[in-house]
Specification:
This protein folds into two domains: 228 residues, Dihydropteroate synthase-like (TIM Barrel); 92 residues, 2-Layer Sandwich (Sulfite Reductase Hemoprotein, domain 1). The protein is an alpha/beta fold. The chain has an eight-stranded parallel β-sheet. The protein is elongated. The protein has eleven helices and 13 strands.
Length: 344
């Protein structure tokens, strides 16, 4: 997809979706730029009408990551998006018109070597597949296989598939079943996961389990709010499984009665100060000197609190002692030296 390889031995890619009005190209592109800075590797935009489709060339101009058009109901929007040069389409072949309209989209996508993601969603499953109104993993897989067959009959195979649900067990079983039936790359995620706190937890459980089982080639963490949080949460999931290394991994203790510094405030400030850093780095923020350097000796750099003061350490070795009010600044200085290749 554009300059990004999905599937096979390629790294699991991180994607997100804008929540701006796509017709406002400037606002949409500004949000995309923030997402790219956070590490987003594929970006999807909603294309609800032709005005939005006409904004795509301006949104795409100078963009270094693939742009995916999200299409529903009107095949002409897919054709207009392809003409605008998008690198991918997300469609549900069953809701953009009859076979002739699907064929028109597939023909143009094939001519342009543009992949199509078949997006099956538990909330909008075909009525004939919902037994008594209930959605089952088998029904979701049947929907996906039906749509895959539709494209394969048209000699089209540049396909990704997603089977999203807000119910984690349903989503897990659907992906497991489909992974046993097809070799197409799978885009995984828990849809409508919720707000930042709850949605991140649901996504970590659902996405994390699948990735640990070897299922999934590209991910999106769907959260209600700023999509930059989606990208950061996705990388945290990938980092926790050892699948990707990007940005800072903060190791911080939960605090206890031994803690004599304002560890919660310090940890929050460190996380905020380092949020934009894209270098893989392990940073420890520990509450006491009893366990700090020892428990976090695998960290590249860290601090361990004392009474109104703390230690700066690297790889478990104490570098110096500083007052509490200077801990964050001294830690940042040490990180700057590491990033700059000095004092290694």
């Amino acid at each position: 997809m554009g300059n990004v390889t999905i599937g096979g031995d390629a790294p699991v890619t991180v994607q997100s979706m804008t929540n701006t009005d796509t017709r406002n190209a400037l606002e949409t592109r500004n949000q995309i730029n923030k997402l790219v800075q956070a590490g987003c590797e594929i970006i999807r935009v909603a294309v609800p009408d032709l005005e939005a489709a006409r904004a795509l060339p301006q949104i795409k101009k100078g963009l270094d990551i693939p742009l995916v058009a999200d299409i529903h109901f009107d095949y002409r929007l897919a054709l207009a998006s392809l003409e605008a040069g998008v690198e991918g389409l997300r469609i549900n072949p069953g809701n953009i018109g009859g076979a002739d309209k699907v064929a028109a989209v597939v023909k143009e996508a094939k001519r342009r070597n543009t992949p199509i993601r078949i997006g099956v969603n538990a909330g909008s499953l075909e009525k004939d597949l919902a037994t008594g109104g209930a959605v089952t993993p088998e029904a979701m897989v049947q929907s996906a296989v039906r749509h895959i067959a539709m494209l394969e009959k048209m000699d089209f195979y540049d396909i990704k598939v997603s089977l999203k649900a807000s119910d984690v067990p349903l989503m897990l079983e659907a992906y497991r079943l489909l992974a046993g039936r097809v070799d197409y790359p799978l885009h995984i995620g828990v849809t409508e996961a919720g707000t930042l706190f709850r949605g991140s937890i649901k996504s970590a459980v659902g996405i994390g389990i699948l990735l640990w089982e070897g299922i999934g080639d590209t991910v999106r963490v769907s959260l209600t709010g700023d999509p930059v949080h989606e990208v950061r949460a996705a990388y945290e999931i990938l980092k926790s499984l050892g699948l990707r290394q990007r940005g800072v991994e903060i190791i911080s203790c939960p605090t206890c009665g031994r803690t004599q510094i304002d560890l919660i405030t310090i940890a929050g400030e460190v996380e905020e100060r380092l949020a934009a850093l894209d270098k893989p780095l392990k940073v420890a923020v520990m509450g006491c000197v009893v366990n700090g350097p020892g428990e976090a000796k695998h960290a590249d750099v860290g601090i361990a609190g004392g009474k109104g003061e703390g230690l700066i350490f690297r790889k478990g070795k104490v570098i110096r002692k500083v007052k509490e009010e200077f801990l964050v600044e001294e830690l940042i200085k040490e990180i700057d030296q590491i990033i700059g290749g000095r004092n290694l």
